[in-house]
Design brief:
CATH topology: Rossmann fold
Keywords: NADP, Oxidoreductase
CATH architecture: 3-Layer(aba) Sandwich
CATH superfamily: NAD(P)-binding Rossmann-like Domain
Order of helices and strands: HHEHEHEHEHEHHHEHHHHEEHH
CATH class: Alpha Beta
Shape: globular
Number of domains: 1
Family: Belongs to the short-chain dehydrogenases/reductases (SDR) family.
Pfam families: adh_short (PF00106)
GO molecular function, one term: oxidoreductase activity
Distance between the termini: 37 Å
Number of strands: 8
Structural class: alpha/beta
Helix content: 40-55%
Number of helices: 15
Length: about 325
């Protein structure tokens, strides 16, 4: 827990970085197609809203609820002047069937994919599991996104073959990775389900970083990075703060440094469309905004990256995909 507390409570982790304004610094996206999971609210909605201002061809909004997705699309379109097509993609990351259907729907409506933002996630949930039997936070935040990316790889790789292509996959991670249990526990679902919710969340965020790094090694034509959005001024950290007086004190301190939801989307927007391709280190982990953390152990460990990838594929092979 010490490493998590140190990262969470140290406000200097959130100072510095590149100057970034999505209004001015996102380049023209004409002809490009994007997909953002968890796009009906929060960081995902803000990401779609900002991308919409730069004339992409289509944006797919991945979300479980049709009513919430429809409301979000209406809200986004009312705030931007472009006539970008925003399409609801029914998606429940805890269900392999739902992920498969989402990929099929996407592939039937688009022959390219330039930007994939794996933004959706759950945090501080009580014990539970997905349909595959994975711990609910790991299964949603990692396994569901792994399967979705795998099913969309043909589109991503095809688009990457085009001249002057710039295909990016951005995984939303967190400093919560510092609270992850040992790697063997991450892969052992029975053990993982027995640790506390913060450690289970940490496992899922460590997996996000491992996945992004391993995707870059296996498919270098795609730029794959993971990002921490920063400390967003919401109630998400409340359950963690209640269990640690040090974190609670850090939370109060970080009210001075915390970000609004709009600012919280900056790092994923920078990675998805703001930074120039040559400015990104493939496989890297970034904290806001654009601060490269080259010594992150999950980025550096090819053994853990390969281990997680192979384990996830073996788990998914148990169901009829």
């Amino acid at each position: 827990m010490a490493s998590f507390v140190a990262a969470f409570a140290n406000p200097f982790n959130y100072l510095g970085g590149v100057s970034f304004n999505p209004e001015k610094d996102i380049h023209d996206l004409s002809g490009k197609v994007a997909l953002v999971t968890g796009g009906n609210a929060g960081l995902g909605k803000e990401t779609i809203q900002q991308l919409s201002k730069h004339k992409p061809s289509k944006i797919f909004l991945g979300a479980r609820s049709e009513s919430k997705a429809t409301e979000a699309i209406k809200s986004i379109k009312s705030s931007v002047s472009s006539d970008v097509e925003i399409i609801w993609l029914p998606l429940d990351l805890a269900s392999c069937d739902s992920v498969q259907n989402a990929a099929k729907q996407f592939n039937s409506q688009s022959d390219r994919l330039d930007i994939l933002v794996l933004n959706a996630g759950v945090m501080a949930l009580p014990p539970g599991e997905t349909e595959l039997g994975h711990e609910i936070q790991l299964g949603t935040n990692h396994t569901g996104h792994f399967l979705l990316t795998k099913l969309l790889l043909p589109s991503l790789l095809k688009t990457a073959e085009e001249p002057n292509s710039d295909v990016r996959v951005v995984s939303l991670a967190s400093i919560g990775h510092n609270y992850a249990p040992c790697f063997d526990t991450i892969l052992n679902q029975e053990k993982l389900k027995k640790v506390d919710t913060s450690a289970r969340y940490g496992a899922s965020k460590a997996a996000n970083i491992l996945f992004a790094a391993e995707l870059s090694r296996r498919h270098p034509s795609i730029t794959s990075v993971s990002v921490h959005p920063g400390i967003i001024l919401t109630d998400l950290y409340g359950s963690i703060s209640q269990r640690s007086s040090i974190v609670a004190l850090g939370s109060k301190t970080l009210n001075l440094f915390g970000s609004s939801v709009a600012e919280g989307a900056y790092n994923e927007l920078w990675a998805a469309a703001g930074a120039k391709k040559e400015e990104l280190v493939n496989g890297a982990y970034y904290v806001p905004v654009g601060i490269h953390k080259p010594h992150n152990k999950y980025v550096r460990s090819e053994k853990m990256g390969k281990g997680l990838w192979d384990w996830t594929e073996a788990e998914l092979s148990k169901v009829n995909l």
